[in-house]
Write a structure and sequence with these properties.
By secondary structure, the protein is α/β, with parallel strands linked by helices. It is built from 6 helices and 18 strands.
Length: 366
């Protein structure tokens, strides 16, 4: 396809994103024999993993489920996860000849001609019968807004741009957020920082003991319920609690993980609470999560009044041609794999129905 071409290229399915969800979908599309293209805006294989901070080694990752048809074996737990997963995804693309096009930015998906979708990108236009959206959340970091935020004289950093603990040596650091990333940041920054403060909106819930299949299903069901109601999805981790491992126990014992409630405002020197207490800081690190990167789907008007896209399985309720994989309950690595296969099966049925509709020829004039 010629870059910048105005004439759409016809294809059965466009896959947007080449992370875990996108590669799983491409694998199943290839096995199903469906004509498709995979578009990824990242510069190289690895999905969002390629952007993770260097100190997040593979051994610290909570779990990466293998892509369908190819296991990840023999990985060094001390290597950065960005390198391990990037190499694994690259090998996967080569093994199954997935031919991901990158870097390609998808700018808009609109209604096209003859019931097709018009997919507008930095590399031209595709015309598709169906689309699998596997864009994840990494490109949409969530920055909360607080009164006085613009007056802060120090640095403000988000997890999306977290450089690793060495950048905070000797600094007074406030970490905001109650998820696993916040805990990981705190535990390693505390070793080099002059002072750390942990702030969360709600008291953190630590999960002791094993987390089995039954607990996993219950957690996914809670996320799924929100998506079915058309509400913005919460992460699966947000309903599972924080694992109480050896490092977390040590952080609790040392006081590093002593949490303070959300502050009332930000001052030039730090943060302040309504009771008059204050903490001075050089850095505020926002470990406040991400939102689904689906703005390119806005022309299709898929959002519900609650702010989310209502889905059944992976299919958008407002448009059966659109499937969201890695969204809501399928945001985990194992969920993304299963959802990729489910989306392709659903799309295959849709395409078969479309092709079965044959126009009736007009009767000849006597």
């Amino acid at each position: 396809m010629t870059r910048g071409a105005d004439v759409p290229v016809d294809v059965d399915v466009v896959v947007v994103g080449a992370g875990q969800a996108g590669l799983s979908s491409a694998y199943h599309l290839t096995r199903a024999g469906l004509d498709h293209v995979v578009l990824d805006h990242a510069p190289r294989p690895g999905g969002a993993w390629q952007f993770r901070w260097p100190s997040l080694t593979y051994g610290k990752v909570h779990g990466l489920h293998a892509l369908p048809g190819m296991e990840l074996t023999g990985a060094d737990p001390m290597r950065p996860s960005s390198q391990v997963v990037g190499e694994y995804f690259a090998a996967y693309e080569d093994r199954f000849d997935l031919r991901v096009r990158r870097p390609v930015d998808v700018t808009a998906v609109r209604e096209g001609d003859a019931g097709r979708l018009r997919v507008e990108t930095s590399a031209g236009i595709w015309s598709a019968r169906a689309l699998i959206n596997a864009t994840g959340t990494w490109d949409r970091p969530f920055w909360p807004r607080y009164r006085g935020q613009e007056t802060f004289r120090g640095r403000q950093v988000h997890t999306a741009n977290y450089p690793g603990p060495q950048e905070f040596s000797g600094a007074r650091v406030i970490v905001v957020g109650g998820g696993t990333s916040a805990v990981q940041h705190l535990l390693e920054i505390a070793e080099v920082a002059a002072e750390t403060t942990w702030v969360t909106r709600r008291p953190p819930v630590f999960r002791d003991g094993s987390f089995g299949e039954a607990e996993g299903r219950a957690a996914v069901a809670l996320v799924d319920e929100r998506v079915r109601r058309g509400l913005p999805p919460q992460s699966v981790v947000s309903v599972t609690g924080l694992p109480l491992n050896e490092a977390v126990r040590a952080g609790l014992a040392s006081g590093v993980l002593d949490r303070r409630p959300a502050f009332d405002r930000i001052t030039p020197a730090g943060v302040a609470w309504a009771d008059g207490s204050r903490v001075d800081a050089d850095v505020i690190l926002w470990a406040t999560g991400f939102r689904a990167a689906v703005d390119h789907l806005a022309p299709l008007r898929l959002r519900q009044p609650g702010g989310g896209i209502r889905v059944e399985g992976t299919r958008a309720v407002r448009d059966e041609r659109i499937h969201l994989v890695g969204y809501g309950p399928s945001a985990s690595t194992i969920g993304a794999n299963r959802a990729g296969g489910a989306a392709v099966r659903d799309i295959r049925r849709l395409l078969n129905r479309q092709r079965a509709v044959v126009p009736v020829a007009a009767a000849p004039v006597a």
